[in-house]
Structure formats: structure tokens, C-alpha cells
Amino acid sequence: MTMAFTRPRGTRDFLPEEMARRRYVEGVMREVFESFGYGEVQTPTFESLELITAKSGEDIRRHLYHFKDKAERDLALRPELTAPVMRLYINELKRSPKPVKVYYIGNCFRYEEPQSGRYREFWQAGVELIGPPHEEAEAEVVALAMATLERLGLEGFEVHIGHIGVLRRILEDGGVREEDQNPVMNAIDKGEEAALKGLLEKLQVPEESRSVLLTILELEGPSREVLGKARALLAGRTGVLEELERFERVLCALGFFGVEGYRVDLGIARGLDYYTGTVFEIYAPRLGAQKQICGGGSYSLTETLGGAPVPTCGFAFGFDRVLLALEAEGRKLGGDKGPKALVVPAGKDLLGEAIRVAASLRKSLPCEVDLMKRKLVKALGYADSRGIPLVVIIGEEELAKGCVLVRDMKTGAQRDVKVEDLGSIKVHE
Predict the structure, then answer these.
(1) Which terminal residue of the chain, N or C, has fewer Cβ atoms less than 10 Å from its own Cβ?
(2) pLDDT digits over 164-203, tens only?
(3) Domain 16-328, architecture per CATH
(4) Is the distance from CB of 314 to CB of 277 less than 8 angstroms?
(5) How much is the pTM?
(6) At what angle are helices 223-233 and 207-216 packed, to 10 degrees?
(7) CB atoms within 10 A of CB 182
């Protein structure tokens, strides 16, 4: 007995209806990204293992699909797209006029325990804005992410914006070296309070700096309220206040884009080591524990990958979670992409004529031919089961008059239509 194969764990098969929804969402995203001046790029599905671990560290290996090729080179399926896109920038675009504005939509791979909204093969869609050192650039990527979700019709999303530079400067004032800050940021990102306190104690951070950090992490709410509390808490800390003022300029720039309704959240750290300034996350509360659908901010990565430093900011949507969020709100995505007509030969020798009629009809209407050579009753049943609104019946008598018989599956009404007039028939759904 032949074994029935199943798909690998943590992966999915997408049927035509699901692919129609996915392509619709992709299309909207592309349209919005391009309206802001971003151009699409694509990178290889696998990269050198060294590129993937350059900034994320060796610990990421346990979450990677990595392997050696036949020349013993260490490679890995990409777990995200920021590092590959920045590698592309260094290789191909570093001499291009600034700003460099690119976007991508692609699949990624991580060896993790599958759960709702999390898969071992998943898709990301995002942008990178490379070159501008100004606050308005950071504001643009936030505005672009929000504009994309609004164009898709998602209503219940929440935007939280913070500034990792404030957190890093507090740690720096407390004597924590840059290389020791990343484990602290990871603990903050994961919400591991006990681990965070343990790290601060291990790093011998002074009590005052420790208290300021733990308090600032709790500040979340409307911008004016949070910023007022932060200024009072950071009084006398010149370096940290400079970072806070830079953050305020980003928030001011958001107003130029008409962005409102966000919440300032100084407890956002992001889990990747390369973030440097503004950071933001977007949540869809209907998704429960896996509610984050977007994350991004400003970062520094090119120098780690062998290039010259360049200001960069961007974001990535968890594409699959965006779809889940839209479906949770009952959004209809993309409409029906299936055939609008079924061309049925009413005789054994009429299939060739049916194919010719269908070829002509496709110039105005997507259609398929009944290649199963069913009897008419069964062909009508097939059309009904597929939701195909029209059936075009090719019969000897009708053809003798230069006509075909067109049946409306919704009303049951039938009428003769001249073959040359088929291009003008309308579908009433």
C-alpha cells in the first residue's frame, strides 16, 4: 500500500479561495507602499548562516532551518527579511541617491512550536527607509503602517510607540556597557520582570538608575500625559532627556501625517538587538495572546553586515496575523475570483466547439469548459455547487442558428444569445 504523504508540521496548504484572499491583501499592501514611493525588492529564500547570526547571535541557531550545501557552505532559510534586505542594500544600492525606499513580501522560516497565528513557514510584508537621519522619516514608517491597515479596512488595531534610545541611555548612565544592554532589552521585550531585575542586579546597576528604568517601563497612555510624567522622572538626566526630546519631535512629525489615536508606551523594547531609537508595535486585540501584527522602528545594522553606517527605519507586518485579524472582524477580502460561466457541450461531438466559444468568451468573462463530458443535468449541478452564475450550453439546434443557450443559475431563466454577442452578456450575482 502506498503511503499518503502529509505536509511538514508548521506549514500550510492554501486552497484557491484562501489564495484569492491573500493575493487581495498583498495587492492592497503593494498599492499603499508604492503610493509612498517604495519599490519592491526580493531576496533569496536562503542566506549565509553568518549573515543571519551576525546581529542576532548564535542563540538563534536553535530557531533556524540551517544546513550545509554540497560545497560545505553554512546556509540558513531566512527567519526574517530585514537582514537580507540590508545585505541587498550594501551589495546593490549603497551608491543610490538617498533616500532608498524599498518594500518586500516574502516567506520566512523558524523552527518553533506551532500554535494559533504562529507557523514554521510564515510570511512578512514590510518596508525599509534608508538614508534620512530626521525624525520625519521615523514618523513616515509609522504613518505608512497605519495607512496600510486603514486601507485594508481593519478597525480595531492599537498602535503603541516608544523610544528604545531612552531605555539605553538610562542603562548607560547606570554603567551598563552596550554589549551588556541587549540581554536587558530582551527581558523587557518578553515581559520577564524577574529576569530583568536579576540582570540589573548582576550588572550592578545603581539603585537610582534601576528604579528609574523600572518606573519608566510602566509609563503608557496618551502622549501628553506620559511625556509629562517621563520629564519629571528624568529631571537632571541630561542625556536621557535629549533622547526624550528626540522622541517628542517624532511624535510631533506624526501630526504632519495626520496620525492620531496612538498610545505612547515607553516599555516597548523590541526583541532584536539593532534597534536604536523610535520603536512601535501594532496590536489586534481580537487575536488574543498572539495579537501583535506589526513591529518596527529605527535601527543600525549596515555596519554589522560590513557596510558604512546609515540611518534606517522600517517595519514588518506578520502577514498571516493581519489576515487573521481581518477575518476576525468579518472583512470580506477580494471577492469571488472563480469562473463566471461554465460552457457545456450538449452533445459528444461538440466539445471542440465549446472550447472555441470559451476562448472567445474569456476576452470579457472568466469561464471554464466542462471537460468531464457530463450530461447537462449533472453539469448544471456542478455549476451550482461551484457558485458559477452562468451556464453557456452549446447545442446543435442553437449552433445552426448561430446561437448558444445562456442559463442564469440564480433565476433559472434561459435565453438564446448570438455567438458574436457573448462578449456583452452580464453577470447578475
Answers:
(1) N
(2) 999 988 888 888 887 788 788 888 887 888 888 888 888 8
(3) 2-Layer Sandwich (3.30)
(4) no
(5) 0.90
(6) 180
(7) 17
